[in-house]
Amino acid sequence: MMSKFYIFNDHDKVSQTIGSNLKSMWSGPWKGWKDVPSHHRECLFERFQSSIHSCWEKCIKGKFPDLLKRDRDKAKALAIQEGAEVENDLTPFLPFKPLWMSQESWETLVHAWNTVSWKNKASQNSDNRGKVTGGRHTLGSKSFLTVRKNMVRNVNLSSLKHTMMSINRADPKKTDT
To answer: Among 135, 151, 152, 154, which Cα is nearest to 3's?
Structure first.
């Protein structure tokens, strides 16, 4: 998926942002990067940082829940593998913290996930994800479903055009238009 939020995965977008910032702040007869004074370099980098900050926030906001869900799912699988009954009580997850997290943080999260309010919110979010139509991921402002429909239509039009060109070639009196 290439989304406007994932600028870090799109070298061209990063390069365009840097170029745009450089042009807007150009204030000297610099022949090369080494000629740009350090205070101008710092200003350029600060502008670049501010231009990608919202992208960073949106990216992290999207990755954060996925990261925690994966670790919850791993803990659940390990707890079940160890013979624990994992139904509505998540405390069997406690011994299976991720390596990158402190025990204290893990325990705090597991206890938070074990609350009625969190479970209700998680259940509602799961229901909402099940109701999404047109695909969860998007290609720009178009869903995968819309893109697929357009592709099918374009393929059909392409096939029609190819068929028409074949008919025109078969009849020497007709020309391609």
So the answer is: 135
**Cβ contacts of residue 140 below 8 Å, gap of 6+?**
3, 4
**Helix, coil or strand: residue 149:** helix
Q: What is the pTM of this model?
A: 0.52
Q: Which secondary-structure segment (H or E) carries 146?
A: helix 144-170
Asked whether the beta carbons of 84 and 92 are under 8 A apart, the reply is: yes
Cα–Cα nearest to 97, from 113, 115, 78: 78
- Those residues whose C-beta lies under 8 Å from the C-beta of residue 92, and which sit 6 or more positions away, are 79, 82, 84, 85, 86
pLDDT tens track for 13-54 = 777 778 888 888 888 888 888 899 999 889 888 888 887 777
> What pLDDT shows up at residue 11?
64
CA dihedral for 3, 9, 12, 16, sign (positive or negative): positive
